[in-house]
Design a protein that fits this description.
alpha+beta; 29% strand; TATA-Binding Protein
């Protein structure tokens, strides 16, 4: 009888250890995917003019067909919605990055689901990079 109890306790402890290892690997996998997503969502630009960057973000979103819902220059945030047969919401945050750069991070949502596909982010940042270049060189 003691042998059965000892064997049951041993089996239970091994199962608990295995579950703990699986949880750890799941958390580590989630952290890796969040880091990858953040790298898709963020770009740094060689400017310290946050106000000009926010205005450029607004113009870029409008050029891409977004309607600006909110913009707060003090917080460095802009959000817009694109209605083109679907509802895509983009929120953009502009923050200082070091002493010579500004960081721009975009978060897209389709309905209530976060967009993890890199394509909308690439389209936004490609257009923003062109706009930032034109703005920096005072080309209208």
């Amino acid at each position: 009888m003691k042998k059965i109890i000892v064997m049951a306790l041993l089996a239970l402890s091994l199962t608990a250890c295995n579950a703990q290892m699986n949880s750890k690997s799941q958390v580590m996998g989630a952290d890796t995917s969040q880091v990858a997503l953040r790298s898709i969502q963020t770009r740094a630009f060689d400017t310290t003019d946050q106000k000009k960057t926010i205005r450029t973000v607004i113009a870029t979103l409008q050029d891409l067909g977004f309607v600006i819902d909110k913009a707060d220059e003090n917080l460095g945030t802009v959000s817009g919605t694109k209605l083109n047969g679907y509802a895509l919401r983009m929120s953009v945050t502009v923050r200082p990055h070091g002493q010579k750069q500004t960081s721009v991070r975009a978060n897209a949502q389709y309905n209530v689901t976060a967009v993890e596909d890199p394509e909308p982010y690439q389209q936004f940042f490609t257009a923003l990079e062109k706009s930032m270049f034109l703005t920096a060189h005072d080309v209208d």
